[in-house]
């Protein structure tokens, strides 16, 4: 297996663990997300798509909409807004698939 694949697999494991701990041990979630993001930036590997839009870049928590994040849909500008419990706001367009850089 290539190194990139190994790292991607490790990131997936970390993020799955992060997801499992959100409700009981949010501090762990933050730690796992932090580690996954560190791998992502060190090896320039994107966070897997299914987790990418559920992570707070400020506090490293993973969101469950309605549980620890408010989700607002702005139909006019076609944007979804996630407001984290730490106060951070992230916006995603939902019309076209678009990569962040
Ligand atoms: Zn946050």
Overall description:
This protein has 101 residues and is of the alpha+beta class. The chain has one domain (3-93). The protein has 3 helices and 3 strands; from the N terminus they run αααβββ. Strands 1-2-3 form a 3-stranded antiparallel beta sheet, with no helix packed on it. The longest helix has 19 residues, at 3-21. The mean pLDDT is 92. The structure holds zinc ion. Zinc ion binds at residues 56, 58-59, 61, 84, 86, 88.
Question: Which helices and strands occur, and which strands form pairs?
Answer:
Blueprint: H1 3-21, H2 26-43, H3 49-52, E1 69-74, E2 79-84, E3 89-93
Antiparallel strand pairs: 1-2, 2-3
Helix pairs in contact: 1-2
The chain binds zinc ion.
**Small-molecule components bound:** zinc ion
Question: What is the gyration radius calculated from CA atoms?
Answer: 14 Å
Number of strands: 3
Question: From the helix content, strand content and strand pairing, which structural class follows?
Answer: alpha+beta
- Given the C-alpha coordinates, what overall shape results? globular
Strand content: 15-25%
**Distance N to C terminus:** 27 Å
Order of helices and strands: HHHEEE
Helix content: 40-55%
The oligomeric status of these chains comes to single chain
**Residue-averaged pLDDT, rounded?**
92
How many domains? The number is: 1
Q: pLDDT below 50 for ≥5 consecutive residues: which ranges?
A: none
Q: What spatial order of strands do you see in the largest sheet?
A: 1-2-3
